[in-house]
Amino acid sequence: MASIIKHKRSSTQGSRPTTSDLQLGEIAINTHDGKMFFKRDAGGSLSIVEVGLDQSAVGVYYVSKSGSDSSAGTTLASSWATLEHAVQNVPRGATIYLKSGDYTIVNPITIPEDVAIIGDNLRNTIIRPTTKTSDILWVSNGSYIHDVTFKDHESPAAAVAFNPDASAGPISMSPYIQNCTSITTTGTGLRIDGSDATGTKSMVVDAFTQYNQGGIGVHIKNGGYAQLVSVFTICCDIGILCETGGFCSVTNSNSSFGNYGLKADGVGSLLQSATLVEQLTTKSYKIKGVIKKPQIGGAISINSANTYITVASTSALSIDSTLSVGPTFTNEAADLQTARSTVLGIKNKVQTDTIDYINETYPTFDYNGFKCTRDLGYIIDAVIDDMVLGTNYRSVTNGNSYLRASANTVLSEQLTETIAAINFAKSQVVSFISSNDAANTVSANFDIITGIMNGGTAPAIVYPDPTGVSTNAANAADNIQANRAFIIENAIGYSDIVLSPTIPDKAAYRTNIGEIIDAITYDILYGGNSQTIIHAEKYWEKDTWQYTEVEKTLIPQVYAQVKNDISGVITLSPLSPFQGDQSQVVSGLTAASITEQSKAESLIDLINSFITDKYTVTVTTEEDAATASTYTVGDTFEFYQYSLISGSSHTFEWVGSGVNINTALPAQGGVPIPANEVVEVNGGRVYYTATNQKGDFSIGADLVIDRNTGTITGNTFDRSLFAVLTPYILALEG
After folding, report:
1. Which pTM was predicted?
2. What CA–CA distance (Å, rounded) separates 230 from 479?
3. What is the C-alpha separation between 459 and 396, in angstroms, rounded?
4. Parallel, antiparallel, or unpaired for β 711-714 and 170-171?
5. How far, in Å, CA of 182 to CA of 210, rounded?
């Protein structure tokens, strides 16, 4: 909106007026092009005094048909001539005003991260490609396009897409296309290919008209995602197409003429697979072998069939039937518990604020926002749990996790930014804790993590007895830690003497066995099994086994020996060393009870079960898959993402009448094909509410209200709308 400023002026006659020397009654209107000056005469009429074109603003650049690429580009008077030159010479976060004109570009052009291109208006700001079969614009994280019309792109080109080399990077702020138009023949207006990006793999669209006669309006595939509002597809071969796991939401949009309206085809790539443990009902299955919960609304193929059923709900993940249980805090000091509860309450805010801090402080930093958010959650949980219990176990183990090979990128390429993010989160968390002692402890725990990341030596883990702990649990923890070295070396000796082949990387195994011992110590002393399960998860990071196939059999055998030795040291039972003169030399210990011995053994069993079978989960489906006798133990369940269109308030007008507007119009004999409005093939799904050119209202394909006859038609009934409503009307009148 223009701003109007009035000033008095006393200046030399003939000089250009400015906002500081306007005569009384003159008006200056600031626009993004500069300043327009008006003067009111004695009769009250306004006249233009001068238009100022040399005004500049930080981060604002101009492209015009009268410009020159040798100019500065920072004002309309010094505008550039080409969009190609502009995108290569503006900083991140810049805005490029593309003035009215018909621009033929050397395509494709990549829009840098957080850069906006704003045209004058749809009718007069046009971009055409030199190479018609190549994409016109490639967008990046945070790109913005407004008021531009794209023309002349042809299949397989799209007006807007991601760069196929995946340089768009992890998408944390979706590219936004607003109030644009695509006018062409076989080209695509918008293509969102999830294989060309990471992160959310998404774009956001508002008011994008697709007049692509014979082309595709919006094409989403390979797990790409879009939020589409007011998208109008006219004469497209397919208005909106989702395939290979692409999915979108479509609101208040329209499909007019063309061959097909909304089409969903197939599913995405395999996400994970599992095997049947037990079929509970025709809609409920207990399965094992998952590393994460199957997504609600996802697709299941049983025994690689080409038909799919839909996940309605899932149980909590368990190992066999054992759920993850955290430590006990209820016996600890009230102020510490309050501090922990407070931090958990603002945890999500801290995560969000930290991501914003990273983006603002390091605008060129390329990182995975999802992973950063997740890891920050782990760190917050660790430092506050340690604060309540008085240990440093979780802080140390979180710091050490960054030393693993799988986290090498953080230390080698992202250390400065990661530590800055953790320190920012520390300041946020501490600011919410009212107890000084608790705040200081939490701050120190954060410092343990960053200290390890910075190359410092991890402090020794301390296991103070929690309030109200049993003597047996305390003795068991002491005995395990006192014999830590013996347990590790005896496992190595067992491998060397008994196993064939022996374990290949003894240094790595010493580290892993030590981590197991520490996790079991924690869980026995503080309660639960959560730390043992966290350790077990490391063997299947990102649903990928982290060792060789031989070790999948070898590791459980080594850990069976660890189980035997831990069990023995808890009750101080005699143990036999496998090599050298090792022995259980620690004296002065007190035996714990069989209860702690049994718990330690069960914790080792959890690790070995997870290595073999991963998690178990019960899945409930929307559809009846078959009778209970159809599936047997060991049958394969494969999980996919549907190609999915979720549409509300959609309008279909003469869909199926063809891609030539001159023959598709009803006045020219165009005939709609209702079956072409929504197409689901190979398992693809379209969930929608819609009206057509006759005014009929549909909730999916199976519930239709016919405007002309006043009837409701569905899978299980066919009744007059009047018959349905009359009893309610009579009841209200009564």
Report:
1. 0.84
2. 67
3. 7
4. unpaired
5. 5
Distances (CA, A) of 86 to 90, 110, 159, 172, 333: 6, 11, 18, 24, 61
Residue spans of the domains in the chain: they are 3-52, 60-209, 213-268+643-701, 272-324+618-640, 334-453, 471-613
Q: Which residues contact 310 (CB under 8 A, 6 or more apart)?
A: 297, 298, 299, 300, 621, 622, 623, 642, 685
In CATH terms, are 272-324+618-640 and 471-613 the same topology? no
pLDDT value of position 503: 86
31 — pLDDT class (breaks 50, 70, 90):
very low
Separation between Cα atoms, residue 50 and residue 55, nearest integer Å: 13
Reported as a single tens digit per residue, the pLDDT across 258-277 is 999 999 999 999 999 999 99
Contacts of 390 (CB under 8 A, 6+ apart): 462, 464, 466
- Asked if residue 639 lies in contact with residue 617, where contact means CB atoms within 8 angstroms, the answer is no
The architecture of the domain spanning 471-613 is Orthogonal Bundle (1.10)
**What's the CATH fold of domain 334-453?**
Globin-like (1.10.490)
Q: CA-based angle 238:239:244, to the nearest 5?
A: 70
CATH code 2.40.10.170 for 272-324+618-640: yes
Sequence length of the chain is 734
Omega before residue 501 within 30° of 0, cis: yes
Which pLDDT does position 7 carry in this prediction?
Answer: 35
Structure confidence at residue 10 as a pLDDT band (50, 70, 90)? very low
Give the pLDDT score at 50: 42
State mean pLDDT over 479-484.
95
Beta bridge partners of 714: 703
pLDDT for the residue numbered 22: 40
Residues in Cβ contact with 100 at an 8 Å cutoff, skipping those fewer than 6 apart: 65, 119, 120, 121, 124, 125
Strand intervals (E) in 163-271: 170-171, 176-184, 188-193, 198-199, 202-212, 216-221, 225-234, 238-243, 247-251, 254-256, 260-265
CA distance 143 to 135: 16
Nearest in space to 396 (alpha carbons), one of 350, 354, 451, 438 = 451
